[in-house]
Fold each of these.
Amino acid sequence: MTKRLSQQDWLQAGFEALTEAGPAALKAEPLARRLGTTKGSFYWHFDDVPGFHAALLAAWADDAEAVITAQRDDTGTAVQKLRDLAQIAEQETDSEATRLGPAMRAWARDNADVAAQITAVDEARMGHIKTLLSEIGLTNPELTRLLYGAFLGMETLSAHDGVQNGPALGTLVDLILALHEAE
């Protein structure tokens, strides 16, 4: 008996296809082949390919912003939350999440909807980092861009070499905090 595929199964297949083959693989036929089923199953869950793309983007954005939501609800200090962000980056090394970020950004080069969603996620993430830095007393806006840029760059590096991000990002956070404390 064949397992009935869920919408989540299709989204997961889409994420895997995007990271392995790029956005051209995000169509009903190649995804159905990947899952060993027919296009009918795809169209049972999604009205059309643009609807699938929209669901894929929404799922990615929800996951990308989940860390921010969890940290806002956490009672830890801003310093601890900044350090936690570095540890989260370490946990994602060599995972689908590490490969997915660069794949999404590559897709955004040719797709305005993806670019808009990435911009919204970037703004939310940078807003969170800015808030944490402000709570510590660091108001230089370049620090927000520096930390977030380092996270994105390390994500891209890890997608290629599998090296842990946490220690390097933790060192960067510690350096920023040490410079602040030395003032």
Amino acid sequence: MFDLGWTELLVIGIVALIVVGPKDLPVLFRNVGRFVGKARGMAREFSTAMNEAADEAGVNEIKKGLNAATNPVSTAMDGINEAARDVAKSIDPTKFDPESETGKLAAERAEQAKKIQATSARAAAERKAKEAADALAKAEEAEAALKTESKT
């Protein structure tokens, strides 16, 4: 589409002011605005109709197939992520018989996973507390420096 900058619009406005006159200029701009609005409405309606026709014809499925063919790495990664999600969902320690060896191992691993999560959460909290204490110490140091500068 064509591009109009501010300088081109200024030149068009000055020419319109000279040709049409200051009296009829607001009417001209109003009519141009209506025309542009109708044109945009028609373009939007056409675009919507084309999208609906494409959906009915099944173009979206073809597009997905072409995207998968042109970008196999992304498609493979999507498959891997989906498989990982399925595996994570299938490993549920409660669905095994608690008396079987598998059930005992699953319960043990679930307990170990909870301990690891708790330990990592504690380590993160301690790290954040240390960072906060360091930031507080720096702030107090800066305030002390300001007080000594203001006294001198």
